[in-house]
Amino acid sequence: MVAKISKGNSLHGALSYNEEKVKEQQAKVIFSNHVMLNRDGSSNMYLASLSFAPYLDANKNTEKVISHISLNSHPDDIVSDEMYSDIAQTYMQKLGYGNQPYIVYKHEDLDRKHIHIVTVNIDENGKKIDDSFEKRRSKDITNELEKTYNLHHADKKKQSEDLPQLRRVDYQSGNVKKQIANTTKALIKSYRFQSVNEYRALLSLYGISVEEVKGEKNGRKYSGLVYSALDNKGEKVGNPIKASAIGKSVGYDALLSRLEYSAKYMKEHKVFKSPKAIIQSAIDNYTNRQGFLNTLAQNRISTVFRENQEGRIYGATFIDYQSKCVFNGSKMGKEFSANIFNELFKDEPQTKQQIVPDPINSSDKDASWQDDSIEKTEYENNWEEDYTIIPSLLEQHGTDYEAEAFAKRKEMEDKKRRRMRFKGF
User: Fold this and answer.
1) Residues paired with residue 222 on neighbouring β-strands, in sequence order
2) Which end of the chain is more exposed for a tag (fewer CB within 10 A), N or C?
3) How deeply is 267 buried, as exposed, middle or buried, from its count of CB atoms within 10 A (0-12, 13-18, 19+)?
């Protein structure tokens, strides 16, 4: 069992994170200690805040007064709600928080079920809870809990290795919404990318497409995302699925936040150093296009080329599984831009977009990773809202995609001119 303890100063932030999961039916409260609940036993942000308030008011000097703890069992463990409740109470008691107000949430938005605990570091007398050697003590407690409840031993490194592998969405097998939900949640959380097209390239490896939509409904303007499954030819199949039907974690605001975080991270870290050398070596030893792609795949890099109808490459995106970073080739330098690869492959026959599968997660195991927290009901057969694709995110965050952005703008301008002509203007 792995415990992660985060300290902060925002009670609202810790509670709202979990309560949003509850609203989306991706989490539930399984225990509370010294916290007021509704009559039916459900949680309530207002009542929870009132319960914590006296403790926070008793000490205004401590900066990080909130503890947000997650307890993660091994994927092979089967843990009931009652067992998780007992584990949480034992853990909190042994860590020194047994008399504190706290709420235990069970999260079910991933295949790996786990619990989150929100509490305060100030006791009822305004004294800070002793947190000396807390991580070491926490590790000792989780080791003891594993023995007590006959759980698998799981340290952080081993747990990451044991996480379920993602597979390409298979629209013919059904439960498309569920497959897309699990895959998009995992990818947007784990990978870093600075543009919508980089995100779209990553999704395409798993048989998913994403589009930005803007429109107006009931007099109110809105922005959002829609996801679609792709067939083996890269063509959209089935009905689009609104991000709101999956969850906020894969929605418009979440994507914006991830783009901003990724830009900062990739600027501060030398993420291009290793892939740049590998890609340059593949170019230097180039024999044919598929050989080029296979060479990169052997070095844990996948490639997505975007081509127009004439077969000209106007975009090249690389997915580095080592650093979990996605980037357009031109970010490494002009010698890796789309024009270079278009020239490199110009003498080869025109082919459909070639994609090398994820060299790390290419298992043919059955889809045991699928998330049972997503309802199995079919998504709407009809897309009721009219929407227009607006490349605003592309323009804001995809500066390396000049050709594609230009093509999108031209397409929109042509459509606008046709509409104006039709209306007689």
Assistant:
1) 215
2) C
3) exposed
Identity of residue 248? K
% pLDDT > 70, the chain = 78
| pLDDT tens readout for residues 154-189 | 655 544 444 446 788 988 888 899 999 999 999 998
CA distance 208 to 211: 10
pTM confidence score: 0.52
Backbone angles phi, psi at 222, to 5 degrees: -145, 155
Please indicate whether residue 47 or residue 309 has the higher confidence score (pLDDT).
47
160 neighbors 10 (Cβ within 8 angstroms): no
Report how far residue 61's alpha carbon sits from residue 69's, in angstroms, rounded to the nearest whole number: 22
Beta strands 301-307 and 236-242 are unpaired
Does position 379 have pLDDT exceeding 50, yes or no?
no
For residue 308, what are the CA distances in angstroms to 185, 318, 404? 30, 19, 10
3 state SS for the chain? CEEEEEEECCHHHHHHHHHHHHHCCCEEEEEEECCCCCCCCCCCHHHHHHHHHHHHHCCCCCCCCEEEEEEECCCCCCCCHHHHHHHHHHHHHHHCCCCCCEEEEEECCCCCCEEEEEEECECCCCCECCCCCHHHHHHHHHHHHHHHCCCCCCCHHHHHHHCCCCCCCCHHHCCHHHHHHHHHHHHHHHCECCCHHHHHHHHHCCCEEEEEEEEEECCEEEEEEEEEEECCCCCEEEEEEEHHHCCHHHCHHHHHHHHHHHHHHHHHCCCCHHHHHHHHHHHHCCCCHHHHHHHHHHCCEEEEEEECCCCCEEEEEEEECCCCEEEEHHHCCHHHCHHHHHHHCCCCCCCCCCECCCCCCCCCCCCCCCCCCCCCCCCCCCCCCCCECCCHHHHHHCCCCHHHHHHHHHHHHHHHHHHHHHCCC
Single-letter amino acid, residue 375: E
**Residue 411 reports pLDDT greater than 80:** no
Q: Which of 188, 245, 214 is nearest to 374 (CA)?
A: 245
Cβ 142 vs Cβ 115: under 8 Å: no
User: Residue written as tokens 């996948």?
Assistant: 302
Q: What is the mean pLDDT of the chain?
A: 80
Per-residue model confidence as pLDDT tens digits over 41-61: 788 889 999 999 999 999 888
pLDDT tier, 395 (very low <50, low <70, confident <90, very high otherwise): very low
CB atoms within 10 A of CB 352: 11
